[in-house]
Design goal:
The structure is a single chain. The chain has helices at about 10-25, 30-40, 50-60, 80-90, 100-105, 110-120, 135-150, 155-160, and strands spanning about 1-5, 70, 120-125, 130. It is mainly alpha-helical. It has 2 domains: about 1-70; about 80-130. It has a two-stranded antiparallel sheet with strand order 1-2. The protein has a two-stranded antiparallel sheet with strand order 3-4. Helix 1 (about 10-25) packs across helix 3 (about 50-60), helix 2 packs across helix 3 and helix 4 packs across helix 6 (about 110-120). It is elongated, with a radius of gyration of 30 Å.
Amino acid sequence: MFRFAAARMSELELEQRTKIKFLVKLEKSGNEISEMLVQVYGDSATKKSAVYKWGKRFSEGREIVTEEERSGRPATSRTEENIANVRQIVCENRRLTVRSIAVQVNIDRETGKKILTEDLDMRKVCAKMVPNELNEEQKQRRVTVFQDLLERQDDIQAHVITGDETWI
């Protein structure tokens, strides 16, 4: 499986590499090129080490300003299947640790944490994973409980004894 670094490269990086290539053809040194880029781009300028690296590549005859495709391990852990498995595990027992969830799904702990926080939009509250927002059923349950408490308010107040220490 191949990934393309060019897709991740910003337009600013591409623009600066093009200018490095141009200045190398004008036989400017790496230091001169770096100083010119800092004059034009300020803090966003390519680092000096990268200027030297790309300057060397272009002086050796390279013409392409983008990174070459390279093999790499594809991201396979944050799949829809794993997200669904994590969702099911958390719904069954919200008190599990991220590590135990990751072991059950056979993914690494960081990926498990990202699935919980980014994909499932959950956060940890008192050792329990809970959604950031309530679903409709949970909202309706809260309304019902509070209405019940309001109806029973008079009964509860009738049984409360108030006073201070002077009545003793």
